[in-house]
Amino acid sequence: KKSEQELKDEEMELFTKYYMEWKGGRKSDNTSYTNIPRFYYRLPAEDEVLLQKLREESRAVFLQRKSRELLDNEELQNLWFLLDKHQTSPMIGEEAMINYENFLKVGEKAGPKCKQFFTAKIFAKLLHNDPYGRISIMQFFNYVMRKG
Description:
The protein is mainly alpha-helical. It contains six helices and three strands, in the order αααββααβα. The chain has a domain at 71-145: Recoverin, domain 1.
């Protein structure tokens, strides 16, 4: 009789043999993996000064670009003014509300940086059980401040 290890070895040998026959014994023709873009680059070593400087500069440019996309204090004040000006009555307690039509009007007047926030998807996300189909101006403004 064969030992348990010998049986496992024989089983593995047969599996490999049949697998290679089934596969055709050749490498795969699918080379799509060669088209996958590289997404990880190692950090430059201490002695690679040029690569370190390049990394610092590209990071600074990236952060500057992101910073320009953010709304500054004046733009936020303008947005609040427009939202307050276009609120839709009646108020719910102390909370000012705005309907979709006025929401779109504010979106047109608010400027290009704010345009990304005035979508139907965002309005629907903030829409709760208001009988008039409105959203809270304060909730929307807080959303803009968190996401922007």
